[in-house]
Amino acid sequence: MPERILYYDCSAGISGDMHLGAMVDLGVPPEHLTTELKKLGLAGWRLQFTRDSRKGIGGTRCDVLLDGEAPPPVGHGADVASAPTGQVDALAYKPVTKLQTPLAPGHEPHEHRNHRDIVAMIERSTLADATKRRALAIFARIAEAEAKIHGMPVAEVGFHEVGAVDSIVDIVAAAIALEWLRPDRVLVSTIELGGGFVKCAHGRLSVPAPATADLLRGAPTRLGTVPFEATTPTGAAILVASTDAFTDKTDFTIERIGYGIGHKDGPIPNILRVFLASTRPAEAAAPAASRETAVVLECNLDDMTGETAGYVLEKLLAAGASDAWITPIVMKKSRPAMTLSVLCPPEKEAALAELILRETTTFGLRRREVGKLALERTFEEVATSLGTVRVKTAWLDGRALKSKPEHDDLRRLAESRNLPLREVERTVLAELAQREAKA
Description:
The protein has three domains: 4-283, no CATH class; 289-373, 2-Layer Sandwich (Alpha-Beta Plaits), CATH 3.30.70.1380; 385-438, no CATH class. Helix content is 34%, strand content 32%. The protein contains 13 helices and 19 strands. The protein has helices spanning 16-26, 30-37, 96-99, 115-123, 129-150, 161-181, 210-215, 233-242, 281-284, 306-318, 349-359, 407-417, 421-438, and strands at 4-9, 45-54, 57-66, 112-114, 158-160, 185-188, 191-194, 197-200, 203-206, 221-223, 245-246, 252-261, 271-279, 289-301, 323-331, 335-344, 366-384, 387-396, 399-405. α1 packs parallel to α6 (161-181), α2 packs across α6 and α5 (129-150) crosses α6 (161-181). The chain is globular and about 65 Å long.
């Protein structure tokens, strides 16, 4: 079956606002973003989506407006004089002009949220688990980069309160949009970083900002096409936490195109172009059960608590592991212990190995390559009496082998209708069985 591909053309860079604009232009409903974001319990913001253009190319512009903040002017070139030094971003390296925005009544200056606070906010929300994992993975990349730069623990990385609201909205909305699109693969082009200097709370810094540079280590980048900051830390974090590969070679059938409009005007159209595409028929005709090579990382642990093990499993899955699990074992001197096992694609091995060595008590790792046989999978939205659910179907030799509704969708229906999850699952499965019998 054809693969669903999301391809980011970052020839003019990427910011959190540009990303949201492109997602909505691609078809993600704005009301879905707002409804899901409200599950955070975060007050003092609203999303504004407007049509705008750069160099004659039209698209969707996103503004995250805070209480007491007037909407910016919209129109071709409207933000040339009033725009910040670079793209709008909400992190530590955000432009000074944004930091100087007057706060609404009740918002005191110099309040901060640290990374630990933001993680707690996301974890206690009623967002779907998959969305939480995406958002936490993006924030983890940002916090790790900032911690390295400033020489502080990850949990203590702080964000100015106004900036925290902006960045939480940008990042969690990105996770919501990606879950709504549910691509099989995410591909990213060479990334334009921009040029010149960016004004920030730390003074004038050359582009790219330190966090952006750290986040994009190993990714193909380009400098100097435009004389301002083209890629922000938020945009960089969204890419590195979501991408499966960086490539400028595209071989797919384009289905939809979304244009996210940037706040700065320059010598080239300041847009983020995102393609929703599918693999070509020739690729789709490949064997239904694909053979892949994967890597297994393992270590035995006899001096780590179960609480820590659970935490490490969550971090490994958020960082891109295909699977991670714990097996109880007995070690020397009859000590009860555990084996931590991680299955991952080869390109994720180095990062996940570093995470295990950093987060667990082990002094070393075993690794081996394994063959992996995977059924082709497709997703379909199906209308039921309780609402729409996504159904995953596995294929073998061109035949549908098995299907099941997505758990996150069942949970969403249970919460929205105040019904027991088991009752929702029973109803949906019965209706799917009737649908299959009629087919």
